[in-house]
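Students often ask why we bother predicting the structure of a whole assembly rather than each chain alone. The short answer is interfaces. A chain on its own may look different once its partners are present, and contacts between molecules only exist in the joint model. In this exercise we take two input lines together and write out one structure for the complete complex. Read the inputs first and try to guess which parts will touch.
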Amino acid sequence: MTTHALPTGIWRRECVAELKRSWRLPQFLLPTVVTPGAFYGLFTLALARDPTPASVAAGLAGYGVFAAIGPSLFGFGAGVAIEREQGLIELKRVSPMPIGAFVAAKLAAALMATALAVGLIYALAIVGGAVLTPAQWLLLALIHLGTTIPFALIGFGIGMRMGGKGAVAIANALFLGSAVIGGLWIPSRMLPGWMRALGEATPAYHLGQLAQAVVGAEPLGAPLVHAAIVAAMTGLAAVWAWTGWRRSPA
Amino acid sequence: MTDDLSAIATLTAVTKRLGSKPVLEGLDLAIRAGEVTALLGPNGAGKTTCVGLLTGRLAPDAGTARLFGLDPRRPAVRGRMGVMLQTAGLPDVMTVAEMVALQSGYYFHPRPVAKTLALAGLADLGERRCGTLSGGQARRVQYALAICGRPDLLILDEPTAAMDRGSARALWATVREAADAGTGVLLTSHDLAEADSLADRVVVLDRGRIVADDTPGAIRAQVGGSVIRCRTRLALAVVHAMPGVREVEAEGAELRIVTRDAPTTLCRLLDADPAVTDLRVGDATLEDAIAALLAPPHRIAA
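Now the answer. The structure tokens for the assembled complex follow.
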């Protein structure tokens, strides 16, 4: 591989610029930040017959994963596809900027949106009576923020292969589909068998089960197995993203 | 061509196909330091493909593309190049100065942002968001992004399309200045006046092959002679048979006649049709020369 030097600070400046750009597009940022919290507040707190600290925490685990999927799939999938149509990717491709800086910047923006969305859910959970130890909070936050990575890679692969409209539709379908079959809204053990089986093919299910284990709800299967499957799926998603970048002319 | 020591960007025996259709066939092209090379030709001639190969977005099917002796697909090699594409966009919510500052950060020895803005005629627009710019202003931002890193090679794809004449002239002056300071420039253009006034060398592409590669003056001289424009009731074929005529073409209601002997052709023309109107005689321009070089159906050849 090449060992050519590039000026220092490219990655950092690219990230700062991307964060600024997201911040200046509240019409995109707000819905991804607010929607998961609104769902969580409505279904787990307001409409639940008899919320207990345990049920509030169990809901928190799944909704947090859901909250992280949105910014990754929309920021990367739909966002990248739209930017490609506007010629913004082409502008970057002919510049000396390394692709890594571009992906890191998009990831930083997705992480910012995820942190806001997840933070809102955590605040609601605390108000709703969830009690977790600092270690549990930390692990949970790691899983929820980490959810961004596989879904960002999946989104990037979609964005490099499809037009803006198609990518938005696919992102929506994956976002809501993962939430349902991945057991993020309704616990997987309450889903019909075929749905659960389908869900097991998504990283959403395994991340959801990991989060369940952290908050003390009984997960289906061993956490380590879930972690290994998430790692393998992330690897596949990376290949999908990389091949998408390579074959796209712009 | 490619053993030329001052060549900083080369295409050597390059063939590129789009599906089964060849877009470029065994093409050799060298861009030299300190020289403005204009790449001209009708739509579909392969200009954009040449730009794509040199900027590393396309890989040749056969032959090699080299930038400073290396593969243009390596990002660090592109650190010595500035590119202004027709198809590139700008993010609406970022300001002009923010974009120029970000792009400048990709290069080792960029100009100060204020200096780049001034050179591109954007001194008063630095704080404007890109989404509020006119088409011509956005082109100037693209130009600023191309020159901010003081590149050794500048690739300008239709730089002055959508610009008013004043902005275009100002841009030409800065391109000329950069070339005089040693930058190699590759320019594609539909504007032949632009190529004529700016280029040291004109390369004419037609259907993936080079049909001319020379100075603008030498290319004009290949056609030689003059161009007569007039309104006449005479048929093309009749005019075509007159002495000295090399080429005849209908331009709207007028005829454009390229001749190597204007006095003789004029006498015969006025003899044949004393009612000729709107008669003008001028030197053959670069446009006339290139029209003569292109294969049919672009012209009626003598």
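Check your guess against this: The mean pLDDT of chain A is 89.
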